Amino acid sequence: LLIYFEHRNYMPGFGLLWAVASLLVFVGPRISTAMHQPQRLAWVALVAFTLVIAASTFSRSIVWQSKESIVEQSLKHHPDSRFARMEMASLEMNRTPPNPTAAQAHYQHLRQLQRPSTRFIGSLGIVAVECFSNQSVEIDFVDQAFAIEIETLEADALKALLSLSDIVMARACDGLSAHQLAFRITNMLDKSHLTSADRTIWRLRFRSARLYSHDGFTNQALEQAKMAWEPGSAEVPVAMFIVALLSNLDQREQARLLLQE
């Protein structure tokens, strides 16, 4: 288990201790008659148990002293953990100053693993680090990343796509513009077996719309935004975004009708 989930062992551990204590209560009186000094032996066992627990608690407190130490411990025991690699890369980029070389090394490790979605995330991570560090992005490398046929658009892949799009919209990314990223995301969504009602799909449709709009591709943005919204849905930001796009295209009557829905 990743160290983040150690708390899941607390209740099973309590149950185990309860079973051991019950066993001692049941067996103790029966074997004490055969011992020379049972009380002294019991105290020795109790002290030894307390020392073991104290030593274990101290060792875990060292690991839990910071987020970085937790992730480092996870990587020590699970070097191929996608979650730990992504977290460590994020920590490296949030240093002052950032350490893009170390961050890219973690993403490069993910690119070498077998699972397609993991290689996809590793590739996107490298591109994100390059954009954030004002390095030039190779568009062929981006195409190779999106050419990877991933199993499904799971949470980690969604996080990687959203993080990259945030960086591309926040700063000028040499070699990869917002509309170029949007084009590749929409192509991927068009090939996905997930339905348009899937939350991951509509979130990425809406993000693609924002990417297109960022570069002034209003018609493409409107197309994606409409695919991310359905009448009667509670996604007000999507609807208001469509209204703004329609207004920019002088389609004010359609914008008014949409507001009425």
Features:
261 residues, mainly alpha, elongated, 13 helices
What layout of secondary structure does this protein have?
Blueprint: H1 10-32, H2 38-63, H3 67-77, H4 82-93, H5 100-111, H6 116-132, H7 139-146, H8 155-170, H9 178-191, H10 199-214, H11 218-227, H12 236-248, H13 252-260
Description:
The chain is mostly helical. The chain has 13 helices and no strands. Helix content is 72%, strand content 0%. The model has no long low-confidence stretch (mean pLDDT 82).
Query: What pattern of helices and strands is seen along the backbone?
Result: HHHHHHHHHHHHH
- Number of helical segments with 4 or more residues: 13
Strand content: under 5%
The Cα radius of gyration reads: 27 Å
How helix-rich are the residues, as a percent range? over 70%
Please summarize the sheet with the most strands.
Answer: none
The CA-CA distance between the termini, in Å, is 48 Å
**Total number of strands:** 0
SS-based structural class?
Answer: mainly alpha
Low-confidence stretches: none
How confident is the prediction overall: mean pLDDT?
A: 82
What would the principal axes of the Cα set say about the shape? elongated
